[in-house]
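worker-3 :: picked RING-type domain-containing protein
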Amino acid sequence: MAEADSEDMWFSFVRDAPATATVYQTIRARLQNLASIRDLVRKTKNGDQPLISTVEEVISHGLFVVKQTQFPQLQLDPATPSEDLLLAAQEARIWLLKMITCQSYLGRGHFIRLFRSILESETQKWSDLQHLYYALTEDEVGEATQRLRAAFAICLQGNFANKYAMDLARTEQFVFLESLPHSSQTTPAIIAARQKVALKAIDATVDTFACAVSLQDVIKQATSKEEQVCPICRESYLDFSTNKVEDLIADYPVRIKFCGHVIGKACLEEWMDTPLKDPARYPYKTCPMCRTQISGMDPPDLPEHFMHRLEHSRFVKRVRETTGLQVKECMDGVKRLMNEEVAAMELEMELEMLNEEGALARDVAKEAEEVLKTTSTDLKGEREVWMIPDIVWMRARNEWMDEGAEE
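worker-3 :: tokens ->
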């Protein structure tokens, strides 16, 4: 579904004919009830207070909801472990509060159409969204707190947090994009960052199949400082005294997703650029540490929810129009940017620890700090080109870094 359609997701359009006076009166009452729900959600501090906190309460309230909301899918398995049930309850609560908050930014017309579709269609034909907003606004369910708890039970037992994770993500992005000033993508800084993003995307040699790793993981796996080096060039990943920060980032350790081996990025790029010695016999490149094929393979994808954004975002479309990048090249550019972000963050943390230990000369540490600060600022500017909310970006980056074989 295109982002422009996000405002009316999940329910069919009602007919254009005017509704009756009774229908409009009922719609107004439901809009007032929805306003009280939003007030209640705003008073809940960041969603920290659980709507329902015990297994017994979940089960008993579920039975109440069956009677009051006509939701057909309320089925609790008595054999569900308590820990699993409470975890699912937490996910349902987060999903519900986020959805209510996001949809509060949608126009009044959206909810008029939604409530009219509820009133003028048979219960058996209701969508999950219609059942949810029926519970949130039905007087017979009770006051705002009871209605919110009823909606929570529906989300929990309907598994909305997983079932509609993508729908929530699209709604969040719709609200995010609509909140941006239209001129935000035409500033000189954004235009310059966009060109830099394009150049990096085209030159993303190994970022499509190798991801940056945690320096602490490298340190833990090494039995000595002599092993905290690239296995190809034997240069240290962490030596700020003899290496410039730019070089440490360029040769930052990356994990090949096909086999799990960790190698300095610059060395891996040089390996990939080296011509094959016997193409007829060995037509593809393998990992320099093992014989796992790494060229000619389908590269691992970014998380599905993130790929959907890149494919359908009007801002990404603008990037493609102004740079000539294809969708795949955009994804390659994002992977490279994510790798560089992780490298900069990890080096910043390592530098901070070395400073606390007094292991670096003051002038060396100061210069490294300044370069890393500038690098982080530049990377932030490049990320802004994609216009993706930070929480969504970081989630996708973490999932991308964790995906693939381990050494």
